[in-house]
Amino acid sequence: MKPTDKTNTTEIRIYQSLWKNVLLFAGCMAFAVVGCLIIRDDNCDLAKKIMGGWLNVVLFGGCGL
């Protein structure tokens, strides 16, 4: 079939999956919680808190929400 062939004009509908969204949210929140635990740890150095903690919370927390 050529890309310019317009015989197939059926509409394709894509629906969101509730379970896929719930699993994505749960995974992102789990990583955000681990980031919070890294931030609260007193034995971690500053670079690990910034790179492993704050970026984890911002990226995964923001994506989860």
Q: What percentage of the residues does DSSP assign to strands (E)?
A: under 5%
Structural class: mainly alpha
Number of strands: 0
Biggest sheet statistics: none
Q: What's the helix-strand series?
A: HH
Percent helix range? 55-70%
Number of helices, counting only DSSP H or I runs of 4 residues or more: 2
User: Which radius of gyration do the C-alpha atoms yield?
Assistant: 21 Å
Q: Which whole number gives the mean pLDDT? A: 85
Query: How far apart are the first and last residues' alpha carbons, in Å?
Result: 42 Å
Principal-axes geometry comes out as elongated
Low-pLDDT stretches are none
Give a written overview of the molecule.
- This protein has 65 residues and is mostly helical.
- It has a domain of 40 residues.
- The chain is built from two helices and no strands.
- The protein is elongated and about 65 Å long.
Produce a short descriptive summary.
The chain contains 2 helices and no strands. It has 65 residues and is mainly alpha-helical.
List keywords for this structure.
65% helix; 65 residues; mainly alpha; 2 helices
List the SSEs and their pairings.
Layout: H1 18-40, H2 46-64
Helix pairs in contact: 1-2
